[in-house]
Amino acid sequence: MAEIEKKPIKITETVLRDAHQSLIATRMPTELMLPIAEKMDKVGYHSVECWGGATFDAALRFLKEDPWDRLRKLRDRFKNTKLQMLFRGQNILGYRPYADDVVEYFVQKSISNGIDIIRIFDCLNDLRNLQAAVDATNKFKVQEGRGHAQVALSYTLGDAYTIEYWMDMAKKIEEMGADSICIKDMAGLLVPYKAAEMISAMKSATNLPIQLHTHYTSGVASMTYLKAVEAGVDVIDCAMSPFALGTSQPATEVMVETFRGTPYDTGFDQNLLAEIADYFRPYRDECLKTGLLNPKVMGVDIKTLLYQVPGGMLSNMVSQLKEQNAEDRYYDVLKEIPQVRKDLGEPPLVTPSSQIVGTQAVFNVLLGERYKMATKETKAVLRGEYGQTIKPMSQEVIDKVIPGEKRITCRPADLIPNELDKLESEMKEWKQQDEDVLSYALFPQVATDFFKYRQAQQEKVDQTIADTKNGAYPV
Hints:
By secondary structure, this protein is α/β, with parallel strands linked by helices. The chain is 47% helix and 9% strand. The chain has helices spanning 18-24, 30-40, 55-61, 67-77, 100-112, 131-144, 163-175, 192-205, 221-230, 252-258, 270-290, 303-307, 311-323, 330-343, 353-366, 376-383, 395-401, 420-427, 435-442, 444-459, and strands at residues 10-13, 47-52, 83-87, 117-121, 148-154, 180-185, 210-214, 235-238. The protein has an 8-stranded parallel beta barrel, surrounded by 5 helices. Strand 7 (210-214), helix 9 (221-230) and strand 8 form a beta-alpha-beta unit. Helix 8 runs parallel beside helix 9 (221-230) and helix 14 (330-343) crosses helix 15. The longest helix has 21 residues, at 270-290. It is globular. The N and C termini lie far apart (79 Å).
């Protein structure tokens, strides 16, 4: 047998972002990350994912922390490792599409505060919703020599998602000026042999590096990585063992050991990784004790593969049915989900499309008539406000839900006028740094509450007993 040439597999570490987002609702505070950062910096990771996704919202809302401050502190400690973030295309990190000037400013501030790699995705895989963020990253790269735009495709199953579809998308991503491609398998639907086939095909269609991101939810993720690496994938996303498996990623140490002594050997030091794992383990135990980490999310949920529904979407649906005393309709709703998804053009099921499809399916089943009532989000999808779906949406459903309404066929953000100046003028009384405008843009109410809290901390004033009307404060 001919010897395979050496190709060490690269690893992106997710313990500081997706791992705790998936297992403990993004509640890991910055002060817990900083003491271990210097050790993590010695491992030799391809990158450390530590920002974006839900970390921004959770920091402001629950941890009373400035997310920009977290990024700067981590940047100070990671001297040799690239830092990576997750970015929801035109929605940035919020839940609505923003004007291009806000997208560009957010990209610029993310990179100048320490991000190296921006992973950009769209819930419909509509590449038009990613172009502004890719262009902004490339513009900054030309000016400052830093920044890497990675376009992530949300992996999903369905008639439309053929091997040709993925190859075609890989070519288009290369043409739009991205630096690399990520296959983002948020529900753990990619099985091992399918992964090998898909990676080989995409590799034949593009010269860009390909990274694979999956979750352990359905129990196959480590095997999927093994086959993907053999098929030539360049980077895999893993999490340190105390926060791995379940709805998180495969464990870093396990993958390192798997490839030891092979052409894919990472060369990582297991003793160093063990010290890092030892650091996180007590925190994991504490999360189990307080209930922040629910043992339920640690197991394998094979239903994910049967129904192609991400774990978070299932739990959401169960609680909606519980509220309506209709838990007995669970299987009816599961049958309705693929039907609604088809009506809406077969989008991947990832935030926010998963919530939209799931909630509409619950309504359809409980009201006994399909689309008797449609949520405002369902209407927005049908109008084209989220972008273009891979398949046409059901004309019958369009006629029933938004009869006679004009539908959007252009890139949705083309209809949003620049809004940075307006946002700046709305929040200027709270502004202490340029980045505050962006925090406010994404989460106006949550950011304002945080700014008030920050001011009270700085002035050492107890807002609850302050007599604001007369401007008198207890000292």
